[in-house]
Structure formats: C-alpha cells, structure tokens
Amino acid sequence: MNTVNQLKMEFSSRPENVAFARVAVAAFAAQLDFTLNDLEEIKVAVSEAVANAIIHGYGNSPDGIVRVGAVITDRMLEVRVEDDGRGIADVKRALQPSFSTDPDRMGLGFVFMQSFMDRVQVESAAGKGTRVIMSKVPECSGAEAAAARAGH
Amino acid sequence: MDLDLEISRDILLARPRGELDLSVADALRDALEGALGENTVRHLVINLARVSFIDSSGLGVILGRYKRLAGAGGRVSLVGVQPQVRRILELSGLLRIMREYASEEEAVARAG
C-alpha cells in the first residue's frame, strides 16, 4: 500500500502531552474520510496508547521520549506509538480485559484500543520498550447504517 | 480541567469540565477524595455535561470513587453524559453499575 502522507512526532513522557498527541493524530486522520465519531474513537485509542507508554513504559517518569507516527495510505490510517521504557514481559496477558497493574484503571486501555481501531498489534519485551501499531479504515456508509441500527 | 464541588445533605455533587485524561486524573482524584472525606458525604453525583472527552484514566477516577462509596453503602450517579463519553462508559460497563439521571435535581433527589 502506498504511503500518501505521514506524520512523525516525539515528545516527553508527560501527562499533558497525551491530549496533544490525540488531537494531532485526529487532525491528521481527518484527511481521510472518517466520520466525527471515528475521529473521536481514534482520539481515545491514541490517548490510551500514549498513557500506557507514560505510566507503564516509563513508570510515570517525565524523562522518557514517546514517539507517535501516523501514516495515511490511499484508504487507511496506521498509527504507531512507541516508547523505550521497561516493556511488557507477557503481552498476551496484558491484552486481557481485566489485566491491570493499577486497581483504578481496570485494564481498559487495550480494550478501548481494540474496540475503536480495526487492528491493534503490540510488540514488546521486558526491557525493550513497547510499540503499539493500530490501523483503521473509514467506515463505508453501509457500515454506518449497520452501526446506527445496532444503537450507536 | 475545572471542577465545581457542592455538598448537599449527604451528597457530593461534582461538575468537572474539560477532558478527563491522564493529565487531570490525579487532581480530580485528590479533589474528590478530599470532599468525600467530609464525613457527612455518602453519595456522589457527577455531572458530565461539560466533559467532552474521557479515557480509561478518567474512568479510573470515577470507578475508584464508586468502589469507595459502594463499599460503604453509597451510590454514584451520573448526569448529562455526552454521546462520545457515553460510548466509553457503556464499553467499560460503568453505566451498568451506576445510575444515570436526566438532571442534577433528579439525581440529588433520588441519591439517598
């Protein structure tokens, strides 16, 4: 698939950059034919991935660097969120809905990424950082009609 | 994020404004915990009418307060949930364990 446009950014692992990242990616994604609802979903997915990098990757230290890249091909958005933090020893387990190292967070981060993006891939190893690759294709009008019938 | 807090009888009414994500989670948690520490408070009503974005960091703050209050027989009710926030609340299951009302008045009247 040919890359039509791309975005690359990196920023400190500070909580105030979570909003910056999701707004930037959503604004970039708007070049594709996404609905406003799609763009809201992309914002949540990016927010979760960046928050994970800050909280889990860097243990809330503001000294890490989070890299976010987005690529638009002729019909799809792909977003990558990467950190050089402590990594995830057991990716499969981390992707379980109830898995969380913080009782207040319910382990919902990956649930939202998986619910709101078409595909989510996590590459990580202990001590090797984490890379989350997510992609989404704009819904066609038929899919929107189906979603509306399903009560969204 | 901006936050209005009001205590009425044994009910804490919270009106956060803005986007509830990681950058405000600690401040929101601390403010709510401080107000819940008033020993007369048993229930929490959260007006989300001016919350335009929430993710798992924001949800976590609400869920944490729910656990605290439910453990002591209290309730958490929600008011004014916006469509983009509703989707997240539904997916997380929070709407199944909390009550939702059309207005603050109704939520406060039925909270006890």
TrEMBL record, chain A:
InterPro entries: Anti-sigma-factor_SerPK, Anti-sigma_F, HATPase_C_sf, HATPase_dom. GO terms for molecular function: ATP binding; protein serine kinase activity; protein serine/threonine kinase activity; sigma factor antagonist activity. Residues 37-140 form the Histidine kinase/HSP90-like ATPase domain. It comes from the Bacteria. SMART domains: HATPase_c. Its EC number is 2.7.11.1. It catalyses: L-threonyl-[protein] + ATP = O-phospho-L-threonyl-[protein] + ADP + H(+); L-seryl-[protein] + ATP = O-phospho-L-seryl-[protein] + ADP + H(+). Pfam families: HATPase_c_2. Keywords: ATP-binding, Kinase, Nucleotide-binding, Serine/threonine-protein kinase, Sporulation, Transferase. GO terms for biological process: asexual sporulation; negative regulation of sporulation resulting in formation of a cellular spore; sporulation resulting in formation of a cellular spore. NCBIfam families: spIIAB. Binds to sigma F and blocks its ability to form an RNA polymerase holoenzyme (E-sigma F). Phosphorylates SpoIIAA on a serine residue. This phosphorylation may enable SpoIIAA to act as an anti-anti-sigma factor that counteracts SpoIIAB and thus releases sigma F from inhibition. Belongs to the anti-sigma-factor family. This is Anti-sigma F factor.
From TrEMBL, chain B:
It holds the Pfam family STAS. InterPro entries: Anti-sigma_ant (IPR003658), Anti-sigma_F_ant (IPR014237), STAS_dom (IPR002645), STAS_dom_sf (IPR036513). CDD domains: STAS_anti-anti-sigma_factors (cd07043). It comes from the Bacteria. Residues 1-111 form the STAS domain. One of its GO terms (molecular function) is antisigma factor binding. One of its GO terms (biological process) is sporulation resulting in formation of a cellular spore. Keywords: Phosphoprotein, Sporulation. The keyword RNA-binding does not apply. Belongs to the anti-sigma-factor antagonist family. In the phosphorylated form it could act as an anti-anti-sigma factor that counteracts SpoIIAB and thus releases sigma f from inhibition. This is Anti-sigma F factor antagonist. It comes from Desulfotomaculum copahuensis.
